[in-house]
Amino acid sequence: MRVAVAVSGGADSVGLLRALVLTAPQIGLVVSAAHLHHGIRGAEADEDERFVVDLAAKLSLPLQRHSVDAPTAAKTGRKTLEEAGRNLRYAWFRELLAQGKADAVVTAHTLDDQAETVLHRLVRGAWTEGLGGIYPVVACSPGTILRPFLQTRRAEIVTWLREIGQPWREDASNQDPAFTRSRIRHELLPRLASFNARIAEQMARLATIARDEESWWDAELARLLPQLILPGKPVRGGGRAVSTHPGQGGVGLELARLRALAPALRRRVLRAASSQLECPLNFEQTEHLMAMCDPDGPRRQQLTAEVRAERSARELRLVRTELPGYAATGKGGAVPQSP
Q1: CA distances from 109 to 14, 147, 222, 269 (A)
Q2: Which of 201, 270, 281, 315 is the residue whose CA sits 20 to 30 A from 167?
Q3: Is it true that domain 232-328 has CATH number 3.40.50?
């Protein structure tokens, strides 16, 4: 297997690269390094890149390099700098796989990263799937993204690097309290550790449980949804009418069948129905739909600017009047928008 190791220059990624170089002959790996310059941190980031270039040369490894402009991507995409950087990073990883330059991209996420991710999502308000945190294996088409260090503590890596005399780079932004993840790492996790010294391990276990739960639910929903979700709207004489207009869509669910479902399953079915209209729902919006399943519940709800819910005697319908990439014309139609 040809693996490209994502190397930022930090301890975790340097440790991963050194570990895989050591074990490659025994497990049949062909190792290369991959470094992305995010266009932030100025001269410090330039030094990180030079460090990775020198390390790859010292280890006689091929190196893939790429530069992006994360600040501009964050501004234009209305994302945080962290989100924009992550999106650009994984887009490049998938590009490496699609170009056949590696069979897998390997990242150095640790158990500590897993704990921070789960807490971050919990604080922001996550569904169960969000508590699954960082997945150890992510299938791409083609290729795979692998995280072999998810059961390894960051301190173990640092200790080993010191033992073998391998330096690394420190990212000053990891200490910057302006970043939520930094505050979670340096403030929240230490505070929680005063209640449970193994809080990081506990968060990682929670992520494992959540991922397994989601895997089961995914299979169950794939089996049930074709029986529950009805496309379009009912028409006289039977059958259903499905809009062919590119800016519109709708799905329906029989209220009797919805009411027969356990709340946990009903909530997931409602969210899945909305996802078919490319409209993921938050908790409050989902609870509005749950209330509409009640015979005495509201008969109409505007869930988002584009999607509304309507309840008839027999059916709960979700209607989207404007799909992504289209804008209303003002005459009941829609026109494509520029990318």
Answers
A1: 12, 6, 30, 33
A2: 201
A3: no
